[in-house]
Amino acid sequence: MSAITNHLPTAELQALDAAHHMHPFTTGNELAEKGARVIMRAKGVTLTDSEGNEILDGMAGLWCVNIGYGREELAEVAARQIRELPFYNTFFQTTHVPAIALASKLAELAPGDLNHVFFAGSGSEANDTNIRMVRTYWAMKGKPSKSIIISRKNAYHGSSMGSGSLGGMTYMHAQGGMPIPDIHHINQPHWWAEGGDSTPAEFGLARARELETAIGELGEDRVAAFIAEPIQGAGGVIIPPETYWPEIQRICDKYEILLIADEVICGFGRTGNWFGSQTLGIRPDIMTIAKGLSSGYAPIGGSIVSDEVAGVIGSGEFNHGYTYSGHPVASAVALENLRILEEENVIDHVRDVAGPYMKEKWQALADHPLVGEARIVGLMGSIALTPHKESRAKFASDEGTVGLICRERCFANNLVMRHVGDRMVMSPPLVIQPTEIDTMIDRAGRALDECYAEVKSQGLFKAAS
Ligand SMILES: *Cc1c(COP(=O)(O)O)cnc(C)c1O
């Protein structure tokens, strides 16, 4: 058996990594110089690197390891499924038990009439499916002109041509010919950064009404769908004002625009319900799922689709699918993950125990001189770093300069948190316990102190004029 173990010193692993491994969203040459951190193993909420450092994973990997690391049950299920049936496709009028069981379970868990699942290998693939599915839906209903999908600036929906186009990351659009045609972006409900003098409630309504304006300008007969994350994740954990989603829902209902909720992060307990749509009061026609679906133990994603949309799509041939749609091993792993989430009451734990406990501690970080706001829903949170709380000012330095310093100070204190510009974001495993939350907040506080000292000593504690 060729186990992949740390038989090489860290420096050699880093040199091989630099020579042969191209990293996502990374400046390769810069990383090659510095050397990537090598993660060896993990248990619960704790990572161990090749130097033996024990690091609290405040990001659950990439927002996905909801049940925490090291669950034997998932290893067992994967091994059993590989022995029984490692692969079969679902294209040519065949199916298999793991895909059947997982689709049925998802239909049971999903709200309303979301009873049908189209599987993919990732969130990006699932959103590519959604683009083709909503356009095909309208074409099959005799309205092929309805092809525009409205999304939002600073949204994240994946990194493929389609999903990256849906996303609103301009630095992604700048490379490789995105966005594809017929994707339209409206502004995000990011009150802290863009709300000016309006109240959050006013601002939430105004930003939601941009959807109505866009539909008016583009023409109702040309708009197929609106897609959004219930709470933006990669964009900086941006929790919309309470007025936002009810107004979006009203507009989608009024103009018969399909509503796609991208639940890739918010799904599977992150917000204290099974789905973010339940927490935010959204009634989507399609939900995108991935990440927490398998807690990241296997690559799998999908679209959970309403009776209406699935009925229309089913009336013709949908010329779409992936070799790994409903992959039996990934499906079996996901199903076991859902069993654990359900039987161990992990979602109740988020809602009633870990979420409220974290909220109290997290919000207290707002007293720090470097922190403007500290917000959280369930177990996803963000803090805005600012040189001036009252005016919600940005730093005079390039966006992300201070955030990067803060992230480095987190690493140095054995805590993984990400920075999105000058915001810090967190999303720990959902099984995190109160004592671990204490440790996390402790380390975050120390990182903020050290960051503050560094920012001041470098003369960066200065507002943009
Ligand atoms: C991560 C993410 C995706 C993309 O999922 P991948 O599995 O990385 O392709 C899509 N939508 C949201 C909201 C995400 O956070």
UniProtKB/TrEMBL annotation:
It comes from the Bacteria. Keywords: Aminotransferase, Pyridoxal phosphate, Transferase. It holds the Pfam family Aminotran_3. One of its GO terms (molecular function) is transaminase activity. Its cofactor is pyridoxal 5'-phosphate. NCBIfam families: PRK07480.1. Belongs to the class-III pyridoxal-phosphate-dependent aminotransferase family. PANTHER family: AMINOTRANSFERASE, AMINOTRANSFERASE CLASS-III. This is Aspartate aminotransferase family protein. It comes from Sedimentitalea todarodis. The lineage of its organism: Bacteria, Pseudomonadati, Pseudomonadota, Alphaproteobacteria, Rhodobacterales.
